[in-house]
């Protein structure tokens, strides 16, 4: 049998052979920059609807995204399983199994998103909004946004899959270039659709959702063409097979399902926190402050930390695939130190200029501003802990240990903060600051447990294998 056609662009062997710091940074900086640039679309959404609709629209987008992510993160968990396999096979230099994995991840994600996510999410949207005690005026703004995001999520999922596949194979610059184009398109569409322009009516929050799905959908079409042509380091198999490959799909779920359950657990924790926020005396104001301070401004920390997490997962996974676990361990500890320093610097802005940051999102209501300032000051400390936790999560997941982060997240992001809020609500009465401190407790716990689990080193013995069809 002839050997399969190799990828047009070879794997970057410096990840498993060269100095570690440049290897981590080469994957991390494009990912961090892409996260920052890509996150601008959320910033633009919030800033524009805050100025042209009001703080109820800020709350609507924040609530809607929290609900949307509960479902989308589960499907996206397949991409974690894909990344584990791609990194391990790329480290071993096996392009045939890399390409086979990428195509099966695409096939499974499309089936789940189009067949389940779109129809079920559309019809359950009103019930989901009721679960988080969103105020009636917030629900009115959130419902069309949520339905559009659910109905047209295909493009976003393919965009996520593409970025994960390329980064795991060692190419972080191509997702950056595509992300810049998507963000520019999204910002342009938001300007036109949120406030209206010429014959285009002002669509408010619905316009923000439309801009997002059009931009990501366009990127998905381009990605599918490029993957079929084979001009990137990953590609679809040259000659098929085009049907489901159950051996690969089982491996995707083996490594991805714990990450999906982890994401659902964390987002359910977020939804339950929104429920507690909705029970406060000034619920709409607190939800608006949470949406801007935690969902958007705190992303300055998580964007960079998630970039390092992805870089660690790639470098650790490829080095384990190349039979070099010591390099995987060194890379993870190195990234944790980088994440802590970056989060500390960003936290200074939360402490010394919180009102300036909130004003950029149209936050002028005195009650909203005061609540937001309190939250930002807590997040200035919390950011250091969650940044370090995310890098160790990347080390665990990249080497194939996706179950430990699941258990750690359930304890730290659900049981502890939700339990504390419930206890305080039933005893002394719940206030906004109690919820913010519960978030801090969860992040501190996650940091400690993640570092401890990675230090045990049990990830070294995890095996990853999918039989080669070229053999």
List the helices and strands and how they pair.
Elements: H1 14-17, H2 20-52, H3 55-91, H4 95-131, H5 136-151, H6 154-168, H7 173-194, H8 204-229, H9 246-278, H10 283-297, H11 299-321, H12 325-352, H13 354-359, H14 366-398, H15 403-426, H16 432-456
Helix pairs in contact: 2-3, 2-7, 2-8, 2-11, 3-4, 3-5, 3-6, 3-9, 3-10, 3-11, 4-5, 4-6, 4-9, 5-8, 6-7, 6-8, 7-8, 9-15, 10-14, 11-12, 11-14, 12-14, 14-16, 15-16
Order of helices and strands: HHHHHHHHHHHHHHHH
Q: What is the residue-mean pLDDT, rounded to a whole number?
A: 87
Number of strands: 0
Evaluate the radius of gyration.
22 Å
Strand-pairing-aware structural class: mainly alpha
Poorly predicted ranges (pLDDT <50, ≥5 residues)?
1-6
Classify the helix fraction into a percent range. over 70%
Q: How much of the residues is beta strand, in percent?
A: under 5%
- Count of structural domains: 1
Question: What distance separates the N and C termini?
Answer: 8 Å
Name the shape in a single word.
globular
Number of helices: 16
Main β-sheet description: none
Keywords summarizing the entry:
16 helices; globular; disordered N terminus; mainly alpha
Describe the structure.
By secondary structure, this protein is mainly alpha-helical. It has one domain (18-456). Helices cover 80% and strands 0% of the residues. The chain contains 16 helices and no strands. Helix 3 runs antiparallel to helix 4 (95-131), helix 6 packs across helix 8 and helix 9 runs parallel beside helix 15. The radius of gyration is 22 Å and the shape is globular. Residues 1-6 have low confidence and may be disordered.
């Amino acid at each position: 049998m002839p050997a399969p056609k190799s990828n047009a662009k070879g794997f970057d062997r410096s990840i498993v052979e060269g100095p570690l710091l440049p290897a981590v940074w080469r994957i991390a900086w494009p990912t961090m920059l892409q996260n920052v640039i890509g996150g601008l679309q959320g910033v633009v959404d919030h800033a524009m609807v805050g100025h042209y609709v009001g703080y109820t629209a800020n709350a609507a987008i924040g609530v809607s995204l929290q609900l949307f992510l509960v479902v989308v993160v589960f499907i996206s968990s397949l991409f974690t399983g894909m990344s584990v396999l791609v990194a391990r096979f790329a480290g071993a230099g096996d392009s045939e199994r890399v390409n086979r994995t990428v195509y099966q991840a695409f096939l499974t994600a499309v089936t789940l998103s189009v067949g389940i996510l779109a129809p079920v999410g559309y019809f359950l949207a009103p019930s989901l909004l009721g679960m988080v005690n969103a105020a009636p005026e917030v629900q009115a703004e959130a419902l069309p946004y949520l339905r559009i995001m659910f109905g047209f999520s295909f493009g976003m999922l393919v965009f996520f899959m593409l970025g994960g596949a390329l980064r795991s194979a060692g190419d972080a610059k191509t997702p950056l270039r595509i992300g810049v184009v998507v963000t520019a398109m999204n910002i342009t569409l938001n300007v036109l659709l949120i406030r209206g322009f010429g014959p285009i009516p002002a669509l408010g929050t619905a316009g923000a959702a439309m801009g997002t799905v059009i931009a990501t959908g366009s990127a998905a079409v381009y990605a599918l063409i490029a993957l079929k042509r084979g001009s990137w380091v990953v590609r679809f198999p040259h000659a098929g097979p085009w049907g489901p490959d159950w051996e690969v799909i089982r491996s995707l779920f083996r490594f991805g399902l714990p990450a999906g359950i982890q994401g659902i657990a964390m987002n359910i924790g977020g939804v339950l926190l929104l429920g507690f926020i909705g029970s406060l005396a000034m619920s709409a104001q607190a939800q608006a402050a949470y949406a801007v301070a935690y969902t958007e401004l705190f992303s300055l920390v998580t964007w960079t930390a998630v970039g390092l997490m992805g870089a660690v997962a790639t470098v650790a996974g490829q080095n384990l695939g190349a039979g070099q676990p010591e390099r995987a361990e060194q890379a993870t500890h190195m990234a944790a130190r980088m994440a802590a320093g970056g989060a500390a610097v960003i936290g200074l802005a939360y402490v010394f200029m919180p009102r300036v940051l909130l004003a950029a999102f149209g936050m002028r209501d005195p009650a909203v501003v005061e609540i937001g300032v309190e939250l930002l000051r807590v997040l200035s400390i919390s950011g250091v802990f969650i940044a370090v936790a995310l890098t160790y999560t990347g080390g665990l997941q990249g080497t194939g240990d996706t179950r430990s982060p699941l258990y750690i997240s359930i304890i730290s992001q659900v049981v502890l903060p939700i339990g504390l809020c419930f206890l305080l609500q039933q005893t002394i009465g719940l206030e906004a600051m109690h919820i913010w401190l519960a978030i801090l407790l969860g992040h501190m716990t996650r940091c400690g447990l993640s570092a401890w689990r990675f230090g045990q080193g049990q990830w070294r013995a995890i095996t990853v294998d999918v039989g080669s069809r070229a053999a």
